[in-house]
Amino acid sequence: YPTWKCTLTRRAREAQMKRFCKAQAIQRRLEEIEVTFQELEQQGIKLEKLLRDEDGTPADQKTQWMNQLLYLVQKNSLMSEESDLMITVQELKLEEQQWQLDQNLRWHMNRDESLKMPEYRVAKQEILMQLLEVVNKRNVLIHIQEEKRLNEL
Question: Which residues form a coiled coil (predicted)?
Fold first, then answer.
């Protein structure tokens, strides 16, 4: 087994582990966001009840309105972060799919020319088309992230 193949295999495993760790971190953060959403919902319900009662002084009402505004800002921020994380999850899935297609394509390309049958050439073309499709999907995700970033500015 040549050294360069061992190196490629090791790097592929390392990249796969990085994607796995990143996916786990995203999953944990999504769970934290869900818990925070539930807490914010409870706060929102309390604030809404207080605002409907309107039995307080103007200063109390102003405080309640400010609390409601802060609640909405926090919720909007969490929704934006959740959206970013979901895009990152999709990007990780596409990255993994691209890696698998790349490995499959390398296997087809490394076959001895004398052993290549027409089916292998067709399979190679299908893999190339799938690879192109995955790259285009990743490009769309990056474009969406860039648009979102520009809108936030």
Answer: 23-50
